[in-house]
Each structure stands twice: as C-alpha cells, then as structure tokens.
Design goal:
The complex is a heterodimer. By secondary structure, chain A is of the alpha/beta class. In chain A, 38% of the residues lie in helices and 11% in strands. Chain A has helices spanning 10-14, 49-52, 55-61, 85-97, 110-118, 137-146, 148-155, 164-167, 174-183, 189-197, 223-232, 254-266, and strands at 23-27, 38-41, 66-70, 104-108, 126-130, 210-214, 238-239. Chain A starts with 9 loop residues before the first helix and ends in a 5-residue tail after the last helix. Chain B is α/β, with parallel strands linked by helices. Chain B has 2 domains: 14-175 and 349-466, FAD/NAD(P)-binding domain (3-Layer(bba) Sandwich); 184-243 and 280-344, FAD/NAD(P)-binding domain. Chain B has 9 helices and 24 strands. In chain B, helix 1 (40-51) packs parallel to helix 7 (396-415) and helix 7 (396-415) crosses helix 8 (417-430). The longest helix of chain B is centred in the C-terminal third of the chain and has 20 residues, at 396-415. Classes of the chains: A alpha/beta, B alpha/beta. The interface between A and B is medium-sized, with 30 and 32 residues.
Chain lengths: 271, 468
C-alpha cells in the first residue's frame, strides 16, 4: 500500500479494455433521500444473484439504493473466458461512474480485491470489503487445507470449486445451501492466477473510508488475513461469528449488511 | 441545467469585512479556493480541491457547465459536426471514464453530457456561481487573492472576495485570432472566423475559401467539400494529415502503444512516416506541399476525410492568401480566386484579461506566460492555471493531474511548509520548461505538450511532494 500515485498508464491508453455486456441488478427506493448508492461486487464464481437474494432488498428497505454487478463471464454478463483482473476492475469502475452519485463499493471475496483495485481508479464515497480474498499464497494454503480436491485443479489452471463447508455456516438449511452452490460459475483462468501472482492494489484515490467485515469461522479467509486486510486501511475487522464465507447468503445475512449501512449513516461523508 | 444566477450567498459577517487599498469592501472567504471557469478544467479543479478538504467558490460567466463543449454558450466554438480528435481513453478523466459503449471518437453533445454527469456525480454545481464573471484578480499580503466579480455582461455591482488560492481555468479556445490581410476591409464577400461556423448550411451552394489547416480548418474544408459549390483550402505549409484509424486502431492509441514500448522519438517518427506513406500515400499528388517538418513536431491534425475529398477533387488546395481585393483573393503563387465566403480557421489565443500579465511572468506582454508545468506561477505559490496545454491527447487528464498536484501543494503549505517551499523553488527554477520535442513555430506552439512527456514530469513532481 505504500506505492505511489500512478499518472502514466501507457498500456491502458494504448490497449483499452474491450466492453462486454454487463448484468446490473438494481433496487432503488421510491423516495431518493440523497444517500450514496451501494454497488455490490461479487467474488469469483458468484454473480449479481448472490446479492439479489437478500442484501439488495434490505438495502432499499433502509433507504439506500443498491446495485449488484455480475463481473464479465459470470452469471448474466457477457462471456469473457480470457478476462483479467484489469477487465473486472474496468467493469466495476464503469458501473460506479454511471451511477447518479458517488458510490459506495462493497466487494465480497475476490470481489473485494477487485474493489481494492477499483478504489485506485475511482474516488468512491466509501468501501466495504466483505470476507476479502486479497490474494497471495496464504489464501491458497487455507483453501487447500479445507478443500484440497476443489482447490488443487485451480492451482494448475483448472476450475476452482468451493464446497458447502467453506461458504456456509452450520445454520443454513442444506437444500438452500445446495441451491446456492449449484449457481456458482467458473471464474476466468487468468483472473484466478492473478489472485496468486497479481499486483498489490495501488493507493486509493480520494481517501475513502474502508470497512472490513468477516467471520472468524470463515474457511476461505482466515482470521489473520482479515486483520491484515483491515490494518491496510488502518482499522480492525468487524466479526460475525458462526457464519461461513458467504456472509450475504448465510443464515443471519442481515447482520453484516446492517453493520455496513449503520457505518455509512455514521460516517460523516456517508449518509 | 441550473440557470439560477445567485444562490443567495450569505452576506459577509460585519466582522469579516475588510477594506482593500482602493477602499472597496472585501469579504474574507478564509481558506476557500477560487476557481475561475466551470469548463472541463474548472470542474476537475473543483472536484480535486474539494476532495482535499478545501471549500471552493467557482465563478462561471455562462449559465451552465462544460465551457467550450457547451454549444449553448456564446463563446463555444463547437459546430454541429464536432467530434473528438483524440480517442476516449486518452480524453477522459482518469478517475471517471466515459461509458465504454460510446464510440472511439464521441460527438460534442456526448462530451457535454459526460461533463454534466461528472458535475452531478461529484455534486460540483453547488460550488458554482453561474452568470458571474471575474473582473479582476489581485494578489494581497500573505499569498492571498482578491477576486472581483460581477454579473456577466457588466450588470449589477462588483463584489470583491478574498481567497486563499486561485485556480485559473478560463480556457484558451474562445478568443479568436484573426490575421490581418491587406485589403480585407474592402473585400465584398462574407468573412467569418471559424468560431462563428456552426452548421454546413452556412456553406451550401457557395464558393468557399477555408484558411488554416488546423483540425477545425480541415473539418470545415471537408464539410465544404460536400456542401459548397467550390472549396479552396489555403494552408501556409505542408502538413501530415493523420487518419483517425491506423492499423485498425485509433491512431493516438497506436502512438501510445509505441510510447508504451518506449521507442525513441526518432524511431516513432520514422514508423509513423512509413505507415502514413503506405496507407495514405504521397499527398503532393493532390497538389499539397511537402511537409517541411517531421510528424509529432506540430499539433497533430487528425482528419480522415480531407484526403478523401482531395482525391475527389472537391477540395482545391491553395497556398497562403497574401492580399484581398474587392472581388477576389490573391494567393502567394500569384493566382486569383473569387470566393463568396472566407472562413478563417486561424485558431484562438489564450487570454487572461482579469490578471496583470506580470503576475504570470509575461513581462514583455507577449501573451506567453512563463510557468512551470504550464500551470505553476513563480513567486505566487497559491496561483495555478489549469488546462493551459495543447497536448497530443485530450486535455482533461492533464488538467486533472495539474489540479491534484495543486491541491496537494495547498495541503502541504499547512502540514509541511518546508516541502511547499522546495516546490516553490522548483517552480521558479524551471518556469518556461517545455514538454515536447522540437516543435514548429506558431502562435500557439509554446503550450504544445506531448502528453507522455508532460505527465511524466508531473508524476515526478507529485512523488517528490509525497516523499518523506
């Protein structure tokens, strides 16, 4: 994070990211009270549906407008087998800058890494990193330990599969968990690699406040990784014990989203 | 669009009332920064300065944002068919991209909607006083500035406010430059400057002479080729006409690819010459003079259409006009032509009529300020000019980083004065520096910059400021 501001972006100017159709689900309150919109960015394998399940509706009930994006190649967005992290960041910044007001970026899982990169390209009002997978070997080792069969193929360029115990806590009904698991898509190979070998995010522009949330029982993101992520943004993680990695789908999903919205209302630059 | 003239600025508290040397009352705006103009550079100045925690008062003489890109403004030079000549990635603000489903070279109306969205997204309009023009900007003690404003058109009383800093973003494409020709006053045909050109209907069925081979001149000549009875295009010298696409990509992106590969300038020039020779061919076949300079040595002229109409014989290239007679125009090669309408696409000159030229280091009154990074003023650490650049890309990214650097500098003046003092020393030492290779002499060449060279120096300045 101690990297310097980057002005020259030769490759970006010479080879801009190609546009791909983007799926954006939105839920807007009937009465606009001038609050900042929230843009939810799903992690690898997930799509906008993961937020449409509970969080979008809840956000609107609290008077905020919510938008959920599917990264390219996932769910309802256009196919992009060769997508890279840079293309994902492009998608997030495109949607965010198309919103009527400065947006709050909420990234889950590897989507939090996309958000961390996007913060360097767009002056967000604020950001929330939910169970952030910020990459590196520690993430890979944790995943290997808890789900060797699903993770090993990914290390050699195959598909990353998450299992029930990684994503959900014990309280979520079995068939609901199975329904969510069946919707998981396949992340792009190159982006998956960049989780291990990608660059550190550049410093955020506009100095947005950043909140880190997670669960101590998360089997994808260890507790130490949460603390490290929060320390990057000079704070401590908010913890929700008993939940799995997918905080927006697990039983008790309302607690983290309420925490984010409460935090936004208290933030001087937020509500 | 907001059209209100005055948002009801609270009258200054009596305790903040001060009298300046002329005895006028001055309201002290404390740490607030004044931005002059709400065009692209002014808007990005408001955004970046507020982002660094300062208050901003922006004065805009028109009733909307967008500056020259707002065709409703009386000083806007855009015509119906104006499209960008730099492609999207090299034109947009670095932290607020244009929609990626827009064309590579958007239309001016799209650009205005982009700027309006920028203003709304970052809630910038609340800082802008529309319909207010700046009359005078004068330095006062403590590096502060007295800014005198009044309603546009000179109505109403003048008000003077005192600011901690000023960003001048009044643009450089509104004060038209008209060359003086012998006999022009007696010429019986119509004469107009390109700033008055709006629509091809003005050319329809007439014999038209277009003077000037800038991007506007070439655009108008190409339109005259389709609409006018005859079109002469008068240029002083030979130019390189770059098409909008080369090798299937926007030409400026190809140039940036060569830059990203770190090819030396000479090699890039050679490659571009080869490429143009292979794809466009030898333009002297159409009667154009051979360019007397290499590519990248003048402001790029990007026009795919002009060569096309030359090849159809719809445009007749002619040399410089030397004299006007009542019924004809005499050319440098002795020929006489008889246009009914002469369009002078002879460009614009920057003007800062509210500032003493000496403040900008223009002691000889040549109209050429001596600044560092074309933005920072020696001996006036709280004054900056935004957007006074003519780059081989869009201006917005350069204005963005200029104002980011200025906002950080203003912050450092409070938190680390030693850093700010070192910056001021650099400004004095390096004022007048240029950021392009050798460039052909013209009335605007002194603020021609190569975007990569320029931004590299600016990036280093930013890093030096941040360094421990």
């Amino acid at each position: 994070m101690n990297q310097q501001v980057r002005v020259i972006r030769g490759w970006e100017w010479a080879r801009p990211v190609r546009p791909v159709r983007r799926e954006v689900l939105e839920a807007v309150p009937a009465l606009d009270e001038g609050r900042p919109p929230l843009l939810f960015v799903p992690g690898f394998g997930h799509g906008a549906w993961a937020f449409a399940e509970h969080w979008l509706g809840h956000t609107v009930e609290r008077g905020f407008s919510g938008y959920a994006l599917s990264l390219r190649g996932q769910s309802g967005s256009g196919p992009a087998p060769e997508a890279t992290l840079r293309a994902y960041v492009h998608d997030v910044v495109q949607v965010a800058s198309g919103l009527p007001r400065r947006a709050v970026l909420v990234g889950h899982g590897a989507g939090a890494l996309v958000v961390a990169h996007a913060l360097a390209r767009y002056p967000a009002r604020a950001a929330a990193l939910v169970a952030p997978v910020l990459g590196g070997w520690a993430t890979a080792f944790t995943a290997l330990r808890h789900n060797p069969l699903g993770t090993l193929p990914a290390l050699v360029g195959g598909r990353l599969r998450c299992n029930h115990a990684q994503l959900f806590g014990p309280e979520l009904p079995r068939d609901e968990a199975r329904r969510h698991l069946s919707r998981l898509g396949r992340p792009a190979r190159r982006a998956q690699w960049q989780l291990l070998f990608g660059r550190e995010p550049e410093p955020a522009v506009g100095d947005p406040p950043v909140l880190v949330l997670g669960s101590p029982e998360d089997r994808v993101v260890p507790r130490s990784a949460l603390t490290r992520a929060a320390r990057r943004y000079a704070s401590a993680p908010l913890l929700f014990p008993g939940m799995g990695h997918d905080l927006m789908l697990d039983a008790g999903w309302w607690e983290p989203i309420d925490a984010i919205l409460d935090w936004l209302e208290k933030e001087p630059s937020g509500g | 669009m907001t059209t209100s003239i005055d948002h009801g600025r609270p009258d200054p508290e009596p305790s903040t009332l001060d009298r300046n040397c002329a005895g006028r009352s001055v309201s002290d705006r404390g740490e607030t920064v004044c931005v002059i103009g709400a065009g692209p550079s002014g808007l990005t100045a408001i955004k970046n300065v507020t982002e660094h925690g300062f208050g901003v008062d922006c004065y805009e003489r028109e009733t909307g944002v967008g500056g020259v890109w707002n065709w409703r403004h009386d000083r806007s030079p855009v015509y119906a068919s104006t499209h960008l000549i730099s492609s999207r990635p090299l034109t947009q603000f670095p932290d607020f991209p244009m929609p990626d489903d827009w064309p590579d070279y958007p239309h001016h109306r799209q650009l205005l909607s982009y700027l309006e969205r920028y203003a709304d997204h970052f809630d910038l309009r609340r800082h802008v006083w529309f319909g207010t023009e700046v009359v005078r900007v004068e330095p006062v003690d403590g590096d502060r500035w007295d800014v005198t404003t009044r309603s546009t058109g000179g109505y109403g009383p003048e008000r003077t406010s005192r600011y901690a800093a000023v960003v001048v973003a009044n643009g450089h494409n509104w004060s038209s430059k008209l060359p003086d020709y012998e006999g022009l006053a007696e010429f019986r045909g119509d004469v107009m400057h390109a700033s008055a050109y709006q629509d091809p209907a003005q050319l329809r069925g007439r014999r038209v002479l277009v003077v000037g081979a800038g991007n506007t001149g070439c655009d108008i000549a190409a339109e005259a080729a389709q609409q006018a009875a005859h079109c002469w295009h008068s240029t002083r010298r030979g130019y390189w006409y770059a098409p909008k696409y080369l090798l299937g990509r926007p030409a400026d992106q190809l140039n940036d690819l060569l830059l990203a590969l770190r090819l030396p300038r000479r090699l890039r020039q050679w490659l571009l010459h080869r490429l143009l020779r292979l794809s466009v061919g030898d333009l002297t076949r159409f009667g154009l003079p051979q360019p007397d300079h290499r590519m990248l040595e003048t402001h790029p002229i990007v026009n795919s259409q002009l060569v096309y109409y030359l090849s159809h014989g719809r445009v007749t290239p002619v040399p410089d006009a030397v004299r006007f007679h009542p019924d004809s125009v005499e050319l440098a090669d002795g020929r006489q032509i008889d246009p009914e309408l002469v369009v002078f696409a002879t460009g614009y000159l920057p003007r800062f009529e509210f500032l003493d030229p000496k403040i900008l280091g223009d002691d000889g009154m040549t109209g050429r300020p001596a600044l560092w990074l074309n933005a920072f003023v020696p001996n006036h650490p709280t004054l900056a000019v935004a957007g006074l650049v003519q780059p081989d890309s869009g201006i917005f990214p350069l204005s963005h980083w200029q104002t980011v650097l200025f906002a950080r500098l203003l912050r450092l003046r409070e938190t680390r004065p030693s850093k700010a003092a070192a910056f001021a020393a650099t400004v004095s030492a390096r004022a007048g520096e240029r950021y392009a290779g050798p460039v052909k002499e013209s009335s605007r060449h002194w603020f021609e910059v190569g975007h990569a060279d320029y931004l590299r120096v600016l990036q280093r300045a930013l890093h030096d400021l941040e360094a421990k």
